């Protein structure tokens, strides 16, 4: 025998179902620039070996000096790496500064530490940590240039591209 429910009985019927709630937080970083970097937006800084005599055989060292206020905000605990290309004048697997008024070049090397022990090869991934108390980037990049003792006089330059990955 079938039983039919009346309208009053339907109003009091209950059913329960559940649904899933979730969220995924992806790791990542936000890079931003504040201020102007001497008209060169996107330029991180300079590595300046200074001035020396064309007859010098000195070994010159320098650290990258940041040109603008670049900040990097990242997910806590994220692993960061940087790669630095060979620049505009790379030859035979080494970076070179090239004389502006000629075809002479001088090889130089990059390092990830002030003691010049951890070499940064061309496009080699180098892990680094952000200072957790600051969002400002301070890339660990140092340079070494050994002068040959008979370099042509002039200004030598190169331009490198840094790629940050996470």
From TrEMBL:
Coiled-coil residues: none
Pfam family, one: SCPU
Name of the protein in question: Spore coat protein U/FanG domain-containing protein
PANTHER family assigned to the protein according to its UniProt record, in alphabetical order: EXPORTED PROTEIN, PROTEIN U-RELATED
Domain spans labelled Spore coat protein U/FanG: 17-163
Taxonomic lineage of the native organism: Bacteria, Pseudomonadati, Pseudomonadota, Gammaproteobacteria, Oceanospirillales
Segment forming the signal sequence: none
InterPro entries registered for this protein in UniProt: Spore_coat_component, Spore_coat_U/FanG
Superkingdom, natural source: Bacteria
């Amino acid at each position: 025998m079938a039983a039919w429910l009346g309208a009053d009985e339907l109003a009091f019927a209950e059913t329960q179902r559940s649904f899933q709630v979730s969220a995924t937080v992806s790791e990542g970083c936000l890079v931003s620039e504040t201020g102007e970097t001497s008209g060169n937006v996107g330029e991180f800084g300079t590595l300046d070996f200074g001035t020396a005599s064309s007859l010098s055989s000195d070994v010159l060292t320098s650290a990258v000096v940041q040109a603008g206020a670049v900040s990097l905000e990242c997910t806590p605990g994220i692993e960061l790496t940087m790669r630095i290309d060979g620049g505009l004048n790379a030859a035979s697997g080494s970076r070179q500064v090239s004389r502006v008024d000629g075809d002479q070049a001088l090889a130089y090397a990059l390092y990830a530490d002030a003691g010049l022990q951890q070499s940064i090869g061309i496009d080699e991934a180098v892990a680094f940590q952000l200072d957790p108390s600051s969002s400002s980037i301070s890339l660990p990049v140092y340079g070494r240039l050994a002068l040959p003792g008979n370099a042509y006089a002039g200004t030598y330059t190169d331009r490198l591209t840094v790629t940050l990955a996470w």
